[in-house]
């Protein structure tokens, strides 16, 4: 059900994002219509998008706003370190992709038609105020939907289950499938950020990965799945025969049910979860580093040009160097047909899926060392304690992980 939190503190979200930051992003020249910014309106039941081509220049954007259009910034974490940090922390808590959009709406305007989304939505009111109307799912099929709806007409909505005016500092939550619409009152603009989670993160989405893999394994290992169908089954099966009383139909149905039940025995559940985790790591924002984490990782390594040549380039890790993962959730081991792959988030972009998934093939003999680093977190361990066969392999693995930004050291490798 929807949840409304009244703060009574207009400055509660101060510093998260502001209209001034949106203006600064526009002036930076990196915002483009359609890619980063949508210009929208909703009037007399008609929802329109007014995006021109090219960069979103301030003069053009603010003219749209002055003429009653709403502005949706699609990827605020790409332009705001604060939003990036906020989402980076939350994605670890939710264990699923965290996204965000900001919405700036002029007084007396509405930017979007009523609709429902495929995400759990948290609306944080940053500036001004906005009237919200939230409606329950219209039918069972729309409870926790897998996909968002098209624009809906007012006549389809019924009565709202919640109607409220959000003011700065307030929070509104509504689950997937709850229809919503929001408009500004005549006396105030509105800036809010919608934080989204749990997109395509249901049991059904897991089973979409799991069941095909289970069937493939059953076909390989169990001759019952490879036996031929009865020669005459087309004559008594099918919708046209669904009301027919026939012992052959009963036997056929029981056979199918038994084969489906046996699939559980072949279901590679852990492998399917690893594939979900692999997708999640592609979705993730890169971790936001503290100053100490930077100093003790490759991101603060003091390589530089000096006196006509590069200095402090060599990463000198020894058996006594104490190391740990930068964060516990930034890596995932996956056993795949091509070999053992290590997926990681440290080289991801702040723009959703701008980069391809980051991974490298890992020698199977290093798997135990990765598991050791995961189980040791957040404690530091010496390189010599990694369960590799030789010291050379221990140092080689630690150096590789350090170069990818996956490891930090207890002390900076180079003292400045």
UniProtKB/TrEMBL annotation:
Cofactor section: Fe(2+)
Which reactions appear under catalytic activity for this entry? N(6),N(6)-dimethyl-L-lysyl(36)-[histone H3] + 2 2-oxoglutarate + 2 O2 = L-lysyl(36)-[histone H3] + 2 formaldehyde + 2 succinate + 2 CO2; N(6)-methyl-L-lysyl-[protein] + 2-oxoglutarate + O2 = L-lysyl-[protein] + formaldehyde + succinate + CO2; L-histidyl-[protein] + 2-oxoglutarate + O2 = (3S)-3-hydroxy-L-histidyl-[protein] + succinate + CO2
- Domain of life the protein comes from: Eukaryota
**EC category name:** oxidoreductase
Query: Per the database entry, which stretches of residues form a coiled coil?
Result: none
Q: Give the EC number.
A: 1.14.11.-
Any single GO molecular-function term of the entry would be:
histone H3K36me/H3K36me2 demethylase activity
According to the record, cofactor stoichiometry and binding are noted as: Binds 1 Fe(2+) ion per subunit.
What are the record keywords, sorted?
Chromatin regulator, Dioxygenase, Iron, Metal-binding, Nucleus, Oxidoreductase, Repressor, Transcription, Transcription regulation
One cellular-component annotation, GO: nucleolus
Which family is this protein grouped under? Belongs to the ROX family. NO66 subfamily.
Protein name per its UniProtKB record = Bifunctional lysine-specific demethylase and histidyl-hydroxylase
């Amino acid at each position: 059900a929807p949840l409304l939190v009244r703060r009574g503190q207009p400055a509660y979200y101060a510093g998260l994002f502001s209209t001034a930051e949106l203006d600064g992003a526009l002036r930076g020249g990196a915002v483009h219509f359609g890619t980063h910014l949508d210009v929208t309106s909703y009037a007399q039941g008609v929802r329109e998008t007014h995006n021109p081509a090219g960069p979103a220049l301030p003069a053009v954007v603010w003219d749209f706003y002055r003429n009653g259009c709403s502005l949706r910034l699609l990827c605020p974490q790409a332009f705001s370190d604060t939003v990036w940090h906020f989402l980076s922390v939350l994605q670890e808590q939710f264990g699923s992709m965290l996204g965000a959009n900001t919405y700036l709406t002029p007084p007396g305007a509405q930017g979007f038609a009523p609709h429902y989304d495929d995400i759990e939505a948290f609306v944080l009111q940053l500036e001004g105020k906005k009237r919200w109307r939230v409606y329950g799912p219209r039918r069972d099929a729309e409870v926790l939907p897998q996909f968002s709806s098209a624009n809906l007409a007012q006549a389809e909505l019924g009565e709202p289950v919640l109607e409220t005016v959000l003011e700065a500092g307030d929070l509104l939550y509504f689950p997937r499938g709850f229809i919503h619409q929001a408009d500004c009152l005549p006396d105030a603009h509105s800036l809010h950020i919608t934080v989204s989670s749990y997109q395509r993160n249901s049991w059904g989405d897991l089973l979409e990965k799991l069941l095909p893999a289970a069937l493939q394994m059953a076909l390989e290992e169990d001759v019952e799945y490879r036996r031929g169908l009865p020669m005459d089954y087309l004559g008594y099966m099918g919708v046209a025969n669904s009301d027919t009383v026939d012992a052959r139909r009963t036997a056929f149905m029981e056979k199918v049910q038994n084969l489906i039940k046996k699939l559980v025995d072949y279901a590679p559940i852990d492998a399917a979860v690893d594939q979900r985790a692999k997708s999640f790591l592609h979705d993730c924002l890169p971790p936001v580093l503290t100053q100490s984490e930077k100093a003790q990782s490759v991101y603060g390594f003091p390589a530089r040009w000096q006196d006509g040549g590069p200095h402090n380039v060599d990463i000198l890790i020894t058996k006594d160097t104490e190391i740990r993962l930068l964060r516990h959730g930034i890596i995932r081991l996956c056993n795949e047909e091509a070999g053992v792959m290590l997926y990681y988030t440290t080289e991801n972009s702040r723009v959703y899926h701008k980069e391809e998934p980051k991974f490298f093939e890992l020698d199977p003999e290093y798997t135990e060392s990765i598991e050791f680093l995961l189980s040791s977190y957040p404690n530091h361990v010496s390189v010599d304690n990694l369960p590799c066969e030789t010291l050379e392999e221990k140092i080689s693995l630690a150096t590789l992980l350090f170069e990818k930004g996956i490891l930090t050291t207890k002390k900076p490798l180079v003292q400045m």
